[in-house]
């Protein structure tokens, strides 16, 4: 099957294609223009923008936290509404099937679930396997588990640490590693309720900084493409910018990725002791090339916060809206589900402005990634409106006019003139995520790439344009036309496949027998348990 997409404005920063041209698809790959070949199918893209399929590096779309949120909030499911889709949650993929469809309609073809507990890996993968169309990947959580903390306490060699990280990534079928409030969940078990970068975990005698640096070094040494994905300490607290600044400084020349930086962009100025520190953090990120970040943009309306940061969720439960929550303590991180509604009050306006400031003040679109930390800052269905805010200063000014002046006085947002271009969008949502994750087969439109392609019909309404793709191809298969799904297919699960060290496997077998009375086999699972019609994709790393 040879398909020609003709007459569109191609935006492919990786290959330097920025202008009108044709694109050819041979079966499931992008191919060079054939010599004298006739297309079996021609797509007229005149008046359209053509980009690679978008990639979301941080969106909570599967696993225990997401499923618990569904159970906690049945009244916000579409099936329970007086009219269909009357709340953001009912329209934000709160079934696995909707998730894939709604992402695909916007031109997204790959999404990463960034917080998979190793003990719940099978559940997570089974749920992700039920999401159609898009490819999926996961990040495995480490940094609060007894095995790792004990090794750090006992001065285990760097090789042993790397062997454990490699085993975790391999056994959970993950694409990388995430640490969440390093050491805080372990400290929480001993009634600690606040925890900073240089605080020490009781019973282990290791600091949060030590845990982060240990995992950062292991991930880097193993050659995992995606740097250690760090959920910092003190999320959401006034003054959390100090924690983020200290964590940025701790990178020390080794790649590090900071998640949802908006939630750490809070200063303590003003009579409410809550202000924007976005300009300060943006300056630090700009000056630290080894650090990349994603935003976690807040958008106004009802949502639910889901997190394995049990300490943060425990402290936030009093702000639940509606007034119900779930907090649970696990062997590693535990977690919590706290519904929340972002209003256009002082605090909601500050959070909204801080995220946009970070987007607009960080210079390099290759190191800032487009997320709402779905669903924590907003459902991913808010992406089109967020694109418009980034690309239109006029849209931002209109939104600012309806917000409290007391909040805007503590933000630089109104003075920022920058507007994102389509090339910036292509870098931030396509090229850069593929590079960060080590996915050389996507994020661009060069010959040999998988044919994940999004075509958008130009429209003065940016949100409409980028929210309803004219055409979306997944592996060369036309899955969206005029904003609607044409048919369903199954994507792949993308993973690393390091070879676990046999001595580490024996040590882990002894540990699990002594700790749980169970064989290590109980904490692993065969690929046949989760494979769909498509095989697993694999990404290489050193071992």
Can you offer a commentary on this structure?
Its EC number is 1.2.7.12. This protein is α/β, with parallel strands linked by helices and 543 residues long. Helices cover 31% and strands 22% of the residues. It is built from 17 helices and 26 strands. The strands form five sheets. Strands 6, 7, 8, 9, 12, 13, 16, 20, 25 and 26 form a ten-stranded parallel β-sheet that branches. Strands 1, 2, 3, 4, 5, 21, 22, 23 and 24 form a nine-stranded mixed β-sheet that branches. A three-stranded antiparallel β-sheet has the order 17-19-18, with helices on both faces. Strand 14 and strand 15 form a beta hairpin. Helix 8 packs parallel to helix 9, helix 9 packs parallel to helix 11 and helix 12 packs across helix 13. It is globular and about 70 Å long. About 1% of the residues have low confidence.
Coarse morphology: globular
Number of helices: 17
What is the percentage of strand-forming residues? 15-25%
- Indicate the percent of residues in helices: 25-40%
Number of E-state strands: 26
Our measurement of the CA-to-CA distance between the termini, rounded to an integer number of angstroms, reads 39 Å
Low-confidence stretches: 533-537
Q: Rg to the nearest angstrom?
A: 23 Å
- Helix vs. strand class: alpha/beta
Mean pLDDT: 93
> What composes the largest sheet?
10 strands, parallel
Q: Quick summary of this structure?
A:
GO terms for molecular function: formylmethanofuran dehydrogenase activity. With 543 residues, the chain is α/β, with parallel strands linked by helices.
């Amino acid at each position: 099957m040879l398909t020609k997409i003709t007459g569109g404005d191609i935006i492919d920063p990786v290959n330097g294609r920025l202008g009108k041209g044709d694109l050819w698809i041979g079966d499931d790959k992008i191919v060079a223009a054939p010599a004298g070949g006739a297309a079996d199918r021609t797509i007229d893209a005149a008046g359209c923008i053509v980009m690679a399929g978008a990639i979301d590096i941080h969106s909570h779309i599967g696993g225990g936290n997401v499923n618990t949120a569904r159970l906690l909030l049945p009244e916000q499911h579409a099936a329970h509404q007086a009219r269909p889709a009357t709340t953001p949650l009912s329209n934000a993929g709160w079934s696995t099937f909707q998730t894939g469809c709604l992402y695909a309609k916007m031109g997204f073809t790959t999404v990463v679930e960034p917080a998979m507990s190793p003990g719940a890996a099978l559940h997570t993968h089974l749920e992700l396997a039920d999401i159609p169309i898009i490819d999926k990947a996961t990040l495995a959580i480490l940094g609060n588990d007894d095995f790792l903390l004990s090794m750090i306490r006992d001065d285990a060699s760097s090789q042993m640490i790397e062997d454990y990280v490699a085993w975790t990534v391999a056994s959970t079928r993950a694409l990388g590693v995430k640490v969440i409030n390093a050491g805080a969940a372990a400290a929480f078990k001993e009634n600690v309720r606040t925890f900073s970068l240089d605080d020490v975990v009781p019973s282990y005698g290791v600091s949060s900084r030590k845990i982060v640096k240990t995992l950062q070094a292991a991930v880097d040494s193993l050659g995992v493409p995606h740097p250690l994905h760090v959920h910092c300490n003190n999320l959401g607290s006034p003054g959390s910018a100090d924690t983020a600044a200290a964590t940025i400084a701790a990178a020390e020349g080794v790649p590090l990725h900071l998640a949802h930086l908006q939630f750490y962009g809070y200063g303590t100025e003003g009579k409410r002791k809550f202000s924007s520190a976005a300009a300060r953090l943006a300056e630090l990120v700009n000056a630290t090339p080894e650090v990349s970040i994603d935003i976690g943009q807040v958008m106004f309306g009802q949502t639910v916060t889901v997190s394995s940061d049990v300490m943060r969720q425990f402290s936030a439960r009093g702000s639940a809206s509606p007034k119900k929550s779930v907090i649970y303590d696990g062997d590693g991180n535990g977690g919590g589900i706290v519904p929340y509604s972002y209003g256009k009050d002082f605090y909601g306006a500050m959070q909204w402005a801080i995220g946009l400031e970070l987007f607009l003040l960080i210079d390099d679109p290759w190191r800032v990634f487009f997320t709402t930390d779905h669903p924590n800052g907003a459902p991913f269905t808010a992406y089109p409106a967020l694109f418009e805010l980034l690309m239109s200063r006029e849209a931002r000014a209109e939104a600012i006019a309806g917000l409290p002046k007391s909040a805007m006085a503590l933000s630089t947002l109104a003075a920022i003139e920058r507007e994102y271009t389509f090339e910036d969008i292509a870098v931030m949502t396509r090229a850069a995520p593929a590079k960060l994750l080590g996915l050389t087969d996507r994020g661009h439109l060069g010959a040999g790439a998988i044919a994940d392609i999004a075509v958008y019909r130009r429209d003065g309404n940016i949100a409409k344009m980028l929210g309803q793709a004219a055409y979306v191809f997944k592996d060369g298969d036309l899955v969206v036309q005029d904003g609607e799904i044409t048919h369903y297919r199954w994507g792949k699960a993308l993973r690393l496949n390091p070879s676990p060290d046999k001595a580490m496997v024996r040590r882990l077998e002894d540990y699990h027998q002594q700790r749980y009375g169970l064989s290590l086999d109980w904490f692993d699972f065969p690929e046949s348990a989760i494979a769909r019609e498509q095989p697993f994709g694999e990404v290489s790393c050193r071992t």
